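Worked example 3 (structure in, sequence out).
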């Protein structure tokens, strides 16, 4: 039986608290993984491992980290993601709200985008949460 959205959130929260050595109350749905919670690239390996184990799923790197788009001259011009690039990101990452990023699509700012809620929506899509 698929987990509920609340169960997904609790497991994601637990993985983040453990991986990032945070207090429970620091992890909120709106918190950004990098800006608010201080996750670094090495931490994401631990987080992904914990989530794969907790949910019994596989998380392909490119589904959460679209470097192939962000480093592609077809989608990035002068350090900014083009409209075509944003469309590609939305297709690849339908669980992310890109509205803030679209206003200023600087590649360096992409890391500030992913929130706890986005991560939960991603997991929900993988496990068919109700």
């Amino acid at each position: 039986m698929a987990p509920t959205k609340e169960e997904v959130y609790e497991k994601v929260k637990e993985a983040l608290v453990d991986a990032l050595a945070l207090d429970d109350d620091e992890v909120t749905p709106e918190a950004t993984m990098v800006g608010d919670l201080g996750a670094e690239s090495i931490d994401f390996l631990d987080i992904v491992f914990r989530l794969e184990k907790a949910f019994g799923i596989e998380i392909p790197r490119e589904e959460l980290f679209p470097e192939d788009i962000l480093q592609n001259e077809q989608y990035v011009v002068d350090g900014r993601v083009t409209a075509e690039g944003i469309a590609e990101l939305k297709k690849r990452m339908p669980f992310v709200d890109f509205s803030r990023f679209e206003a200023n699509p600087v590649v360096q700012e992409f890391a500030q985008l992913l929130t706890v809620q986005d991560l939960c929506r991603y997991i929900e899509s993988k496990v068919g949460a109700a």
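Notes: The chain is about 50% helix and 5% strand. The mean pLDDT is 94.
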